[in-house]
Design goal:
417 residues, elongated, binds uridine-diphosphate-2(N-acetylglucosaminyl) butyric acid, four-stranded mixed sheet, 2 domains, alpha+beta
């Protein structure tokens, strides 16, 4: 087990470089098996979800070569074997092998995916879409078996703009016969990045990034190449950190347009923020205004930045209301924040945050990835020492977090206990 120890209340200054987006990389890696041959993914973040997916590629007999942040995947000798429970349970994104293997092999055996405990996380929208394309889906205990003689393009309407279902259905339809239209598709920036990768392999996809994506099936895909776009959630987390304890903290290598829902809120709160072409500079101010936040699908306020943002709301001058609309269980960090001196009352998927609170260090536990990141921000803001247990959750999605924060002046250490 890993534990993080933070000595808080230091002003942080300097540059933080943002890596490739976790939620794009975790789909791009499985997408590689749709191609015959070798594909290259650049700017892959150094996170444990990456390693879990590489392990699954190896189970499928792919050759994988990782050099710094460049991943080369050769699928020439792919063997379509069962993806066992131990490996599929390690992360949510293992379910992208459903769409990718169904698309290429027309047969998949895989156990149900894992991932953060932030809600029920059903996959019915994915399954309904696979069935609409002509697959039969059966379950044996926790195992899914998906098969099809052939997949035939069709119109698919998603009852919710699900990120995962949109991506999985792109995977299942790129090699199908004829035209598929995904209606009410998710519009997250990552979806365009993933479509661009498939297009580089020879796929015919238009409309990615809008709510209607059209895919015309092709017979075969060849090796492709893509650069993972910058991680807007990692960037957002560190921008909030700058508002908490920064002095000209510069968050670099980002696409500010992808962060507008956050930066417009920070401006409403009267933060000291400067938005440049590919970086954002932010400093702490004393009189932050409270605000109300409701998470929404892209381009709304991202659910994945909600937990880190709640820490900033504890420092605003007055009462803020926070409403989560995507996941039913994204308040796991609140008991820890309250233990550290915050004044947050949770009611269902909403919370009321009364600030400003003087946060003090304590021993707390990361219950999930973004909740864990929120505790890191709280620890860096608090006086005294904060000990965060179960840091593995955080390492799933934040690359080199210890080094990146130490470089701007944080006193932070990850220990094996
Ligand atoms: N949903 C269903 N049925 C489905 C699929 C989704 O009811 O078949 C519901 C979910 O229960 C949830 C909502 O639809 O209430 C949104 O789910 P979505 O499918 O959009 O989420 P996801 O693809 O499972 C990805 C990210 C999440 C991020 C969400 C929303 C990955 C691996 N995960 O999840 O990221 O919160 O989109 O933007 O890409 C994180 O990074 O911390 C994280 C949880």
């Amino acid at each position: 087990m890993k534990q993080m120890v933070i000595e808080g209340n230091n002003i942080l200054t300097g540059d933080i470089h943002i890596g490739g987006a976790k939620n794009s990389a975790v789909a791009l890696i499985p997408a590689s098996i749709l191609a015959n041959g070798t594909s290259t993914i650049k700017n892959v973040p150094n996170i444990s979800d990456r390693d879990a997916l590489i392990d699954i590629l190896k189970i499928l007999n792919c050759d994988v070569d990782l050099e710094e942040s460049t991943l080369k995947i050769d699928t020439t000798n792919l063997k379509n074997t069962l993806i066992d429970e131990e490996h599929s349970k390690k992360l949510r994104a293992s379910y992208y092998f459903m769409g990718a293997l169904l698309g290429r092999e027309k047969y998949v055996e895989i156990y149900i995916p894992g991932g953060c405990n932030i809600g029920a996380r059903p996959i019915d929208i994915h399954i309904d879409g696979f069935k609409a394309l002509g697959a039969t889906v059966t379950t044996e205990g926790n195992k899914y078996i998906l098969k099809a003689d052939k997949l035939i393009g069709t119109d698919i309407y998603l009852r919710f703009q699900s990120v995962g279902a949109t991506i999985n259905l792109m995977f299942a339809s790129v090699l199908a016969e004829g035209k598929t239209i995904i209606h009410n598709a998710a519009k997250e920036a990552e979806i365009e990045n993933i479509a661009d990768y498939l297009i580089s392999m020879g796929a015919n996809i238009t409309g990615a990034g809008t709510d209607e994506i059209t895919i015309v099936g092709v017979n075969k895909l060849h090796g492709g190449e893509i650069t993972v776009l910058p991680d807007r959630i990692e960037a957002g987390t560190y921008i909030i950190l700058g508002a908490l304890v920064g002095k000209n903290l510069c968050i670099k290598s980002i696409i500010p347009k992808h962060l507008e829902a956050l930066t417009s809120k920070l401006k409403d709160m009267a933060s000291d923020i400067t938005i440049n072409e590919d970086n954002i500079v932010i400093s702490k101010v004393d009189n932050l205004k409270p605000t109300n936040i409701k998470t929404l699908v892209y381009p709304g306020f991202p659910t994945d930045i909600g937990q880190p943002m709640s820490v900033l709301l504890t420092q605003a001058n007055g009462t803020s209301l926070f409403e989560e609309t995507i996941w039913e269980n994204r308040m796991g960090h609140v008991p820890s924040l309250n233990k550290m001196g915050a004044n947050i009352t949770v009611k269902g998927m909403s919370s009321m945050i009364i600030g400003p609170s003087k946060l003090h260090g304590d021993e707390v536990v990361a219950t999930d990835l973004r909740g864990g990141a929120a505790l890191v921000l709280a620890g860096l803001t608090a006086t005294g020492t904060t000990v965060i247990n179960d840091v593995e959750h955080i390492l799933r999605g934040y690359e080199n977090i210890e080094e990146k924060l130490a470089q701007v002046g944080a006193k932070i250490e990850i220990k094996e206990i």
